[in-house]
Write a structure and sequence with these properties.
alpha/beta, Rossmann fold, 2 domains, 9-stranded mixed β-sheet, 5-stranded mixed β-sheet, 14 strands
């Protein structure tokens, strides 16, 4: 039914695709100007709506770089209730900056986490407020042409490659496929663990990277669940009954992973970036109380966890656990990816100019 409805929307996609293509051409011809900064900017983004693993990739970059550099992140702060430029501090909540920046702020308190609707305005403000900053990671900024990053990392999901998709509303693309040529690095995310060399080469041929573009492959790797408030780790036994609570774009990989943990689970699924209400909390607790097993827990994602944290008084006595995820590089190419990132930043540090055009 949904596919048939999307076919009806195909003419609108053609029109919208032309608008996006024309806008990109204006930037390519310098009729619309992209601001450049003599500073290492790493952009993480995608062409499609939905979850390709942008925030976990930002986390990966933070872990890679924080031992050597003062790192900051800048994002729009999707669905926050505030406006303008802001830097996270001890009093900040997900309502102030959005769930994904809040997730980064909680996990990496030593870095600067900032939000601004317009990155071209936010970057100078960030550097003014935090002059010791040495690297800025722009989260979900690939389609924002007002800023030209020195290194563009484009993510595309294995199960929904941008090459097989179409422009909204008939498809899930928010940018034209040809925009992929602006990427320096393309990462195919959420791959199956046993992806073989033949499949790898087939996908690379389909993407058809330009000379100099590097293509990497990652899978999702989940770490041990930890309690939302006490941070205590927990092993999930096969007889544990799990109530999964999530509001993410694509819960499919999470559901597939749960089958490896337990034989029994139930789900309450909300829209992506859902802001939990008191009524939602009551429904979650009601569903959890209906589970008769003595060995039961609630499980949620890190992104959902930062939005549930405001209900600490209501949830602190319940077994609410968070399941963290990371990118794991396939085909032994993690060192190659790391070297690409480090070389880009180091080149700026020594010469004051980007590694790539």
């Amino acid at each position: 039914m949904l596919k048939s409805f999307r076919y009806i929307l195909f003419p609108f996609s053609i029109l919208w695709g032309f608008v996006i293509w024309f806008r990109n051409k204006l930037f390519d011809k310098n009729i619309l100007r992209s601001a450049t900064f003599n500073f290492p900017l790493i952009c993480v983004g995608n062409l499609a709506v939905g979850g390709t693993g942008k925030t976990p990739m930002a986390e990966y970059l933070i872990r890679l770089l924080t031992n050597k550099y003062n790192v900051a992140t800048l994002s729009r702060g999707y669905k926050r209730k505030t406006k303008g430029f802001a830097i996270a501090d001890d009093t900040t909540t997900a309502v102030d900056i959005g769930d994904e920046p809040m997730q980064l702020h909680k996990k990496f308190p030593g870095i600067t986490v900032a939000v601004a609707e317009e990155r071209v305005v936010g970057i100078p403000q960030l550097l003014h407020a935090k002059p010791a900053t040495e690297v800025i990671i722009l989260d979900d900024a690939f389609q924002h042409r007002e800023v030209r990053a020195g290194l563009n990392i484009l993510l595309t999901e294995y199960g929904d490659l941008y090459t097989r998709d179409f422009i909204l509303p008939a498809g899930n693309l928010r940018d034209v496929k040809s925009s992929a040529k602006r990427a320096h690095v393309i990462v195919v995310t959420k791959c199956k663990s046993h992806l073989n060399e033949e499949e790898r080469q087939s996908i690379i041929e389909e993407i058809h990277p330009l000379p100099g573009q590097q293509v990497f492959f990652t899978k999702i790797e989940y770490a041990s669940p930890y309690h939302l408030f006490t941070k205590e780790n927990r092993f999930i036994a096969p007889d544990c009954h799990v109530l999964l609570v999530c509001g993410i774009a694509n819960p499919r990989p999470l559901k597939e992973t749960l089958t490896n943990y337990t034989d029994t689970y139930e789900m309450i699924v909300f829209r992506d970036h859902h802001i939990f209400t008191v009524d939602d909390l009551a429904e979650i607790k009601k569903q959890f109380s209906k589970i008769e097993s003595a060995n039961k827990i609630m499980l949620t994602t890190e992104k959902d966890g930062v939005r549930l944290a405001k209900y600490e008084n209501e949830l602190k006595d319940l077994p609410v656990y968070v399941l963290p995820m990371r990118h794991k590089f396939l085909f032994g190419e993690q060192d190659k990816f790391d070297a690409t990132i480090n070389a880009f930043v180091e080149t700026f540090a020594t010469t004051g100019s980007p590694l790539t055009a």
